[in-house]
Backbone:
C-alpha cells in the first residue's frame, strides 16, 4: 500500500482480507474502495496465494498437496495435511492448558485435531543420505508469503476455524528452515500476528544448523515455535555417515546451541531419530542415545520415525518389533519416547518422501 501511496491502515485492511478472511482475489476485498481495487488491478497488482494444484489422498486420511507458488512460475512445493496428527506432537508441552473443547462439527468433518506440514525451500541443500528431498538439491528459497501461504491454503481447504480447532503447524516439509532463516521467521510472524495461530502449536525442525539455532534462541517467546532437532544417530561417527552436515556441526555444537533457547514452562526439545534398519536401530544404539540425551541435561523427548523408503535410497525400514524395542529401552531409561505413525506412505507424503512426485 505504501508503494501505491495509500495510507498504512489500508495495509491492515489488506492483511485482514488475505490472512483472516482468506480472500484470493483483489476484486473480492470489499474493505477497499472499488476505485482503489480497479486502480491496483490496472497497475498489475494481484492478491496471490499459493494455490493447491493437485491433491493426493491417502487411505489414512492424510492429504498431500502440490502447491504452486505464483512468484516462480510452475515451481511446486509440497504441503501435507494430517488429520489426527502423527503422534509427533505428543509430550512436548503443547498440550499444556489445552481444553478438550473442539468444534461441534469436528465429528462430521472426521477430525478433532490436525497437523499441517509445510515446506520452507524447493528442494534442500543438506545432503542427508536417507532423505528423498536431498536428491533434488536446492532449487530456491521460499518467500515468507509462500511459506505462510501454504498454511492458509490448507486452512481454507479444510475449513479450519482458527482459535477454535486444534491445528498444529510443523516446518518439516521440504527444505531446511534454518538455511532460509529470515523468510521462515517472517512466515511465523505472519502466521502468529496475522492469521492468529499460536507459536506453541508450531514446531520447526532443523538438521542442526548451529548459527540458525543461535538466532532462534534470540527470538521472543511470542513468536518462537518449539524446536525439534533431527539427531538421527547416537554418536558423531554414525551421524557423520548418514548426515554429512555433522562434520561441520557435530552433536556437541548443536546441543550447546540448543541450550541457549529459553524454554517455556513444561516445554521440551524434541530430538527426532530416524530408525534405519541395522544402521541406527540396534539395542546398543538405544542405550547410547539415552546416555547422550541425559548428558545434554535438557528437558527432552525423542520422536522415533521408522525410515520411509524411496527410490534409489539404500536403507531398510526397521521391523515393528525393533522399533518398539528401541522405544521401550528409552522409556525404561526415563527418556520420553514416541514412535511416530507413518502417515500417507501410499501417496509419498511421509517424512523424507517429499520430492514433487506427481505420480501420486
Ligand atoms: N530439514 C529439516 C526438516 C525437514 S525433514 C530437518 O531435517 O530436520 C523432517 C524430518 O524427516 C527430519 O527429522 C528427517 O530426519 C526426517 N526424514 C528425512 N527422510 C526420512 C525418511 N526417508 N524416513 C523417515 N524420516 C525421514
Ligand atoms: Fe534436508 Fe531435512 Fe532432508 Fe536432511 S532430512 S536433506 S535437512 S529435508
Residues:
Amino acid at each position: 500500500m505504501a508503494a501505491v501511496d495509500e495510507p498504512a491502515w489500508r495495509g491492515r485492511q489488506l492483511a485482514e482480507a488475505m490472512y483472516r478472511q482468506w480472500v484470493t482475489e483483489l476484486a473480492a476485498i470489499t474493505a477497499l474502495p472499488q476505485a482503489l481495487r480497479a486502480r491496483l488491478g490496472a497497475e498489475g497488482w494481484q492478491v496471490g496465494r499459493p494455490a493447491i494444484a493437485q491433491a493426493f489422498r491417502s487411505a489414512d486420511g492424510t492429504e498431500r498437496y502440490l502447491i504452486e507458488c505464483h512468484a516462480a512460475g510452475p515451481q511446486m512445493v509440497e504441503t501435507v495435511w494430517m488429520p489426527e496428527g502423527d503422534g509427533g506432537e505428543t509430550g512436548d508441552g503443547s498440550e499444556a492448558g489445552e481444553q478438550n473443547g473442539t468444534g461441534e462439527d469436528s465429528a462430521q468433518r472426521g477430525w478433532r485435531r490436525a497437523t499441517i506440514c509445510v515446506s520452507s525451500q524447493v528442494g534442500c541443500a543438506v545432503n542427508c543420505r536417507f532423505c528423498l528431498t536431498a536428491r533434488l538439491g536446492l532449487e530456491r528459497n521460499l518467500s515468507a508469503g509462500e511459506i505462510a501461504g501454504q498454511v492458509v491454503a490448507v486452512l481454507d481447504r479444510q475449513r479450519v476455524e482458527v482459535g477454535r480447532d486444534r491445528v498444529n503447524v510443523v516446518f518439516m516439509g521440504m527444505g531446511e528452515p534454518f538455511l532460509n532463516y529470515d523468510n521462515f521467521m517472517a512466515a511465523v510472524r505472519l502466521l502468529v500476528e496475522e492469521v492468529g495461530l499460536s507459536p506453541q502449536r508450531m514446531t520447526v525442525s532443523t538438521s542442526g544448523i548451529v548459527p540458525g539455532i543461535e538466532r532462534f534462541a534470540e527470538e521472543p517467546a511470542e513468536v518462537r515455535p518449539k524446536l525439534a532437532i533431527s539427531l538421527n544417530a547416537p554418536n558423531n561417527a554414525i551421524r557423520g555417515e548418514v548426515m554429512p552436515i555433522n562434520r561441520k556441526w557435530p552433536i556437541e555444537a548443536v546441543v550447546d546451541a540448543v541450550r541457549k533457547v529459553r524454554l517455556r514452562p513444561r516445554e521440551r526439545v524434541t530430538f527426532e531419530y530416524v530408525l534405519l534398519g541395522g544402521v541406527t536401530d540396534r539395542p546398543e544404539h538405544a542405550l547410547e542415545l539415552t546416555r547422550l540425551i541425559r548428558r545434554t541435561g535438557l528437558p527432552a523427548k525423542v520422536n522415533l520415525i521408522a525410515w520411509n523408503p524411496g527410490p534409489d535410497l539404500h536403507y531398510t525400514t526397521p521391523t515393528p518389533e525393533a522399533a518398539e524395542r528401541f522405544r521401550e529401552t528409552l522409556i525404561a531409561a526415563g527418556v520420553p519416547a514416541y514412535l511416530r505413525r507413518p502417515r500417507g506412505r501410499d501417496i509419498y507424503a511421509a517424512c523424507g518422501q517429499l520430492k514433487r512426485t506427481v505420480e501420486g
In short: The CA atoms of residues 79 and 118 lie 5 Å apart. The chain has two domains: 2-42, 51-347.
